[in-house]
Amino acid sequence: MRDISKIELRQLRQFCMVAEELHFRRAALRLGMAQPPLSQAIAKLEAEIGASLFDRSHRQITLTEAGIAFRAEAQRLLLQLEEAVGIARSAEQGRVGRVRVTFVGAASYGLLPQIVQAHRASHPRVEIMLQERTSVQQIASLQSGEADIGFLRPPFFGASDIRCETLLREPFVVALPEDHRLAARDRLQLTELAGEGFIMFPAHEGPSFHARIISACDEAGFAMRVVQEAVQMHMIVGLVAVGIGIALVPASLRKLGRAGVAYRDLDPGPSALDAEFAMIWRRGEPSSAITAFLETARAVAHTQTIAMRMPPSQTM
């Protein structure tokens, strides 16, 4: 068996050019080289292969049967090389690969869908895997390597190996049964909620976020009376709809559009609440695909933050 390890890609390109032109001088001009070195390169290739690729017995050269077969395979190899180079460059730019994303339920009504849509548009060859998880579960998933990026409501503590970046802030609103006495008002003070029964997520599912809400109520002069707990925000809103109680939820939950629920703004004040939306990822050097997704998230969040600051007439 002949040793073909000496065959170079340069020779394949030269052969394909001669096979296209069927003329050594024209092929040499297109390759930017002199004709004699090209003729020598083709002769060397034929010797290494052990077969004649061109019939030179006539005035115009033609491909031999071996040359016709070799041309098809040479073109395929060159095309595969171009594709391999393209894939490598895309990987370097984060345009291929996989990103595993976890998120709290409330994120699906706000910024996250816009981020995913924008990234799929700009990086169509990147696979985005989405899974809803609580804040505590997200941190565990990142630490175990089961997830790459998480979206949650900060703050959180005790995870020094996790990086956190706030993307935007949004106000809290009050979710009320639509027949509640306070639903007739457009805006409420937090102090007016004293004595109400609240639906709240468990403290262990978001300790710091939970503590902020409890603390705001304390500062407003009352202790929150929790009548029901639910892990996911959409379940909390569903319980509000059937009259179990009221809830304090991020303003993006308005998009849920649950029948039987009225959302009312809270007046800003000493006890004003806002909800941060943040992304988390492992410390270290993230892959190019992860880095590109983080950049998309920042860009989308920046655009939405500007839109939130504009007067209503400018956001149409």
Automatic annotation (TrEMBL):
Classification via Pfam families: HTH_1, LysR_substrate
What's this protein's name? LysR family transcriptional regulator
Q: Which family does it belong to?
A: Belongs to the LysR transcriptional regulatory family.
Organism this protein belongs to:
Plastoroseomonas hellenica
**CDD domains, from UniProt?**
PBP2_LTTR_aromatics_like
The record's keywords, sorted A to Z, are: DNA-binding, Membrane, Transcription, Transcription regulation, Transmembrane, Transmembrane helix
Q: Which InterPro entries match?
A: LysR_HTH_N, LysR_subst-bd, WH-like_DNA-bd_sf, WH_DNA-bd_sf
Task: Tell me the SUPFAM superfamilies matching this sequence.
Answer: Periplasmic binding protein-like II (SSF53850), Winged helix' DNA-binding domain (SSF46785)
Q: Where is the HTH lysR-type domain?
A: 7-64
Asked if the record carries the keyword Transcription regulation, the reply is: yes
Judging by the UniProt lineage, the source's domain of life is Bacteria
Chain ranges passing through the membrane:
233-253
